[in-house]
Fold this protein.
Amino acid sequence: MEKRLTERERDILLKLVELYIKSGEPVGSRTLQKTYGIPFSSATIRNVMADLEDKGFLYQPHTSAGRVPTDEGLKVYINHLFLSIGEGEETKAGRIIESLRAENIKDMEKIFPRVLDFLQNTTGYVGFGAKLIENLTVKSVTLLRVATNRVLMVLEFHPDYVLHRVIDVSIPESELPKLSKELSKRFHGKTLREIRKELVEDIESLKKEIADISFKLNSQILATLNEVNSLEFHGTSNIVNVLSRDVDRLKEVLKLLEEKSLFLDVLKKFMEEKRQVDVILGSETDIEPLYPFSFVVGKFQAGYRNGGIVGILGPKRMDYSQIIPVVENVARALSLILRD
């Protein structure tokens, strides 16, 4: 719950954060007064800033320095931006759509890289996107033998997605039709999230019988489903500009980008939220190497219940007033393109 702010405190806080984002330097009372023509003394402004510090919205890096926003103060500014930006203009979304239509690009696999390139080139940060199919429901499961110890698993979802993976498991060919029928009956109408939960519970109960074919099959299916949601990054070299003086943290972040799983966990949580566009501060992820960063994220729709997320990974001190509309428009453009 946001701590209560007076109108004067909110005004000073918003102006200070805006100035800090532009300069990257601690902001003093005189600078605030001169920049914005605030109609009261610098001593009064200092007192308000001290109150904001006591409430946890600002901090003073050095005794003689001005103030810098905390993550809580930054979040107040970001939430204010969402109210003032509103729906945003359609120009950027229109440009992306027209460019892709002019080249007759309709395949998702070709559209996605183009959109992520647009994001990273427009902002100078890391553009990322995830295609998430958590909410699709299973129609059928088919198992086909392709080698002695390998089986092709085909998962057909309702209404418009097919997943196929070769899994390492030894099953007699004569058993495959029966298993396919059993799995189809068991998983029909369930989402990936529901299936994962069910498989984890099954695997726990089967641990004592490691040789059991059910354990091996369930383990392979679960491993496959955990790899379903794809995540792409464009412009990872831009991370260097943010962490050029912190080599150890840079290595940790690049490792996280390569492994992807923790990023996907963050994005899946956002998919469960009602808001279509949001800003997630690094400190809100509980992933320590990401604390100097922010995610600006937007949802897109692709098909009936299929969709995903596009966004920007950049420094916490980025120009949100410019970045939020870009991400919002790109997400909207993707939904429009994929709806055609």
Observations:
- The mean pLDDT is 84.
- The radius of gyration is 25 Å.
- The first strand starts at residue 58 and ends at 59.
